User: Fold LysR family transcriptional regulator from Rhodococcus qingshengii.
Amino acid sequence: MLDPHRLRQFVAVAKHLNITHAAAELDLTQQAVSSTIKTIERDLGVALLKRIGRRIELTDAGRILRDGAQPLLDGSSALIRAVHEVDRDRNEQLLIAHTLTVSVDEVIELVEPVRREVPLASVAVRRLADPELISALRVVQADIALRRGVTIPDGYMGSIIGYSLLRVAVSTQHPLAVERTIKLGELAGTDLILSNRPEDPYYSNFLIAACRRQGFEPPSSTVVFKGCPQLRQ
Assistant:
């Protein structure tokens, strides 16, 4: 049997390919993590890691264990959560996670039909960075994840539940400032200001791809504001 505590240590090592970094993430000593890896290898009778010069790499067996370990750990976390909640006196709750590019107003608008259909349902909303959405779904910290149109990860289902107008903010001196609606192609040659948040790059890529479909490559720049509207003179 695989000990979940030891398995988590192996997953950390497999992620970082570095004992020191894995130990720091787990708040353990390097010696403890190294000992755990050796124990797992002894119990399974296979080598999980190999050294190439000063680097650590996974063996074929190590890659198989890494790929299968996370679903086991996620399932364990979800089971523990379900056990803890079974005796709670509460109404049905819908857990919704959404990325930074989906506004709270949009979430409320999307949830409103659910509230009308199930008035006693409790709805909890969390804003997460895009890479955190899948983890939230895996451990049942979210029932639904909302994000802009991007590819769907393997093992998950998704569908388009709505469309929204793309709002464009331009300087009052811009020729398009007097227009109430514009076509995307009219922005050709206009500098596109994007967020460079490393935790949520998909929307920026989505916007650039939309411009390319209209036949132009948008010049772009990035801003680093967080927690407030992105503004430029």
Remarks:
- The chain has a mean pLDDT of 79.
- Residues 60-85 form the longest helix (26 residues).
- The two ends are 62 Å apart (CA to CA).
